[in-house]
Amino acid sequence: MSEDAAAFAPAARSAALASGLGIRAVERVFRWSPAFVAARTLSGALRVSGIQLGTTSLFWGLPRLTGSGGVCSRLKIGEHCGFNVGCHFELDGLISIGDHVSVGHEVMFLTRTRDTSSGRKRAGKLGSADIEIGNGAWLGARCTILPGVKIGAGSVIGASVVVAKDVPPNVLLTGNRTVSLAKWR
Prior knowledge:
Elements: H1 3-19, H2 21-30, H3 39-48, E1 52-53, E2 58-59, E3 64-66, E4 75-77, E5 82-83, E6 88-90, E7 95-97, E8 102-103, E9 108-109, E10 112-114, E11 126-128, E12 131-133, E13 138-139, E14 144-145, E15 150-151, E16 156-157, E17 162-163, E18 171-174, E19 177-180
Parallel strand pairs: 1-4, 2-5, 3-6, 4-7, 5-8, 6-9, 7-12, 8-13, 9-14, 12-15, 13-16, 14-17, 16-18
Antiparallel strand pairs: 10-11, 18-19
Helix pairs in contact: 2-3
């Protein structure tokens, strides 16, 4: 490799990652891989594509990443996290997930918002709001995390729950019922 090509290689890799080509290549390679097969390889490939994923965190199936621009730079995941199959990340805003977080299958993280202030056009200007998941949280199967939500450390979100507002630390949220986990210690 010539000096010019060697100098260009990091810049080309950065441009490819910023444009989303890295994640598209990962999707092409792992699309046909069965769930729970090659989880460490898949997680390593996601790291190489630009996702900030802790070295001890795993995806047991290919996640779906959507959004505009370089989506990989807007997903930050801590250490010792596990993500079941079918997770969906809408990455118009930042999604920050702490350490020791468990995520059930088909969980959706949505960051896209719309301006609804006008009565003439409710689906107004497009925006985004960040999502933050605290350390040690557990998100049950098929729950949906809406834009701007912060889930406190140690909280448990039940299956199929739609989380529309912030959840304090150490709380069990099942449907419209919230129970403090602190009293169970």
